[in-house]
């Protein structure tokens, strides 16, 4: 490939570890207690994880809440790949059936979950998708990391860590179920 046509791949430098496996675990335990406290139990609560890393987070939180409340919590999955605003709106839409999330969200107090909250565009798309599947009574957002730089009026009710970042930085959440390792890293784009 000539120098003119060569596509330069961005380079990243690791700046440090923000959370270890045990810190992630402790944070999820705290968030499980916060949810139970704010919802006065968990009977009407349904957890919905956004693919990809929101899903294992929702499953883990479901187990933790069940341990506290002694009854199972519905845990569902939202795949928003067809709802992204960077894709053509004329493109294919997923088949919409109430069961596609994993349970019927209508009338439920939904806690939408993702690993990182940045511009808010993923959550906007997730809300679009969620309301195609039913009419929840309420929707709250839980994220492991809020790194700021919102481009939409979206905020999380439950936040693991608030990490102020520059736009050149990236938060990398690594979870065993997806990445085969467990930690949160701060990474920086280098010229
Ligand atoms: O607030 P936003 O600007 O939308 O950014 C947050 C989203 O970015 C990441 O997903 P990414 O698109 O990197 O996909 P991945 O999780 O599947 O790697 C992260 O998991 C959030 O879903
Ligand atoms: O820093 C960021 C921004 C968006 N999504 C991530 O996973 N990390």
UniProtKB/TrEMBL annotation:
One Pfam family this sequence matches: Pribosyltran
Swiss-Prot/TrEMBL catalytic activity: UMP + diphosphate = 5-phospho-alpha-D-ribose 1-diphosphate + uracil
Keywords attached to this entry: Glycosyltransferase, Transcription, Transcription regulation, Transferase
UniProt-listed Enzyme Commission number(s): 2.4.2.9
Domain Phosphoribosyltransferase: 23-175
Location of the motif PRPP-binding: 110-122
GO molecular function: uracil phosphoribosyltransferase activity
GO biological process, one term: regulation of DNA-templated transcription
Enzyme class: transferase
Lineage: superkingdom: Bacteria
CDD domains associated with the record: PRTases_typeI
Function comment: Regulates the transcription of the pyrimidine nucleotide (pyr) operon in response to exogenous pyrimidines.
Family the UniProt entry places it in: Belongs to the purine/pyrimidine phosphoribosyltransferase family. PyrR subfamily.
PANTHER family: BIFUNCTIONAL PROTEIN PYRR (PTHR11608)
HAMAP family: PyrR
Official protein name in the record: Bifunctional protein PyrR
